[in-house]
Design goal:
This protein is 30% helix and 24% strand. The chain is α/β, with parallel strands linked by helices.
């Protein structure tokens, strides 16, 4: 289990001295994993604990508070995604006015050297930091030499077609409903985690009870129907089919994820579930009757079962 530390100030000695990978790491995709692998090599050689330095909220949310939802994962999901990579600690630093105003040198000295006591820092080839994004990997190397830590830089990671593996590429794939490409970049299916809320319970009237999850600050993938796999609070993983969108027939004010779990009976209200979007089946459609809707849902369920078997 990854230990989460939410500040850099006044840390005890046992929380300092790690080899760290630094970045937003939204999605912890294969490009991010290359940076973490750089830090892991240094951690083994020193030896030192392996840690990740990231930020909450995401810097983009701080600088563009009115921006459309864009996150690929929650902090809890990030911690879980880091665990299989051997990461022991996640420094999830508050991105606030103080952090935003720091120069690149101040960040390297006050946060990395004095606050976290890092022994090594790994970053991506295009890493920038500090007010105005004036810091670069080369600048970090200079600051590291001044303040007692080494620095390594991970090369760009491309797919077979030469396209950069990035969070932006994941978002583009999700917007297009290309779940295979999103999964290939992430190394796992994109997943939405959230608390199950009460809905209008209309699905129960046609024998399709759904677990409804608001999307919050998650980016909006293509609206439509998905084959899904859901992790319940007790760690069971169940197959299902889900509608993601505004429901053209009934129209919701905000997009919603509505999940019908196959072969499940139980009350999930108020509980947190994680839903992997495994395959995009079709766009949203409007229906002229509940009977037509139920017929289509039965088809969608059959298509979802087939997609989850493939």
């Amino acid at each position: 289990m990854v230990e989460v530390v939410r500040d850099w100030r006044n840390l005890p000695p046992e929380l300092k001295g790690a080899a760290v990978a630094i970045g937003a790491f939204d999605g912890v995709h294969r490009g991010h994993q290359a940076v973490i692998a750089e830090a892991a090599r240094a951690a083994r050689a020193l030896p030192a604990p392996l840690a990740v330095v990231s930020f909450d909220p995401h810097p983009r949310r701080w600088f563009q508070p009115a921006a459309a939802p864009f996150r690929l994962m929650s902090p809890a999901q990030m911690a879980r995604a880091l665990a299989p990579l051997g990461v022991e600690r996640l420094y999830l630093l508050p991105f606030d006015g103080e952090m935003a105003a720091m120069s690149d040198e101040t960040f390297a000295r006050a946060v990395l050297a004095d606050g976290l006591g890092v022994r090594h820092a790994a970053v991506g080839f295009d890493f920038t930091f500090g007010k105005g994004r004036t810091g670069s990997p080369e600048a970090l190397r200079r600051y590291g030499a001044d303040h007692g830590f080494t620095v390594s830089v991970a090369d760009r990671v491309d797919d077979a077609g030469g396209l950069k593996l990035s969070s932006s590429a994941v978002r583009e794939a999700l917007h297009a409903g290309d779940m295979a490409r999103a999964t290939a970049i992430l190394g796992r299916p994109f997943a939405i985690e959230g608390e199950v809320i009460h809905g209008d319970k209309r699905g129960r009237t046609i024998g399709v009870p759904t677990a409804n999850v608001p999307l919050g600050d998650y980016m909006r993938p293509a609206f439509g129907i998905y084959a899904v796999r859901v992790r319940l609070p007790d760690s069971r993983r169940l197959d299902g089919v889900a509608s993601l969108g505004v429901r053209p027939m009934f129209r919701t004010d905000e997009p919603l994820l509505e999940v019908w779990l196959f072969d499940f009976a139980g009350d999930l209200y108020g509980q947190t579930i994680e839903t992997e979007l495994v395959a995009f089946l079709r766009p949203e459609l409007a229906f002229d009757s509940l009977e037509a809707l139920k017929t289509q849902i039965d088809r969608d369920a059959a298509d979802a079962r087939a997609a989850l078997l493939s």
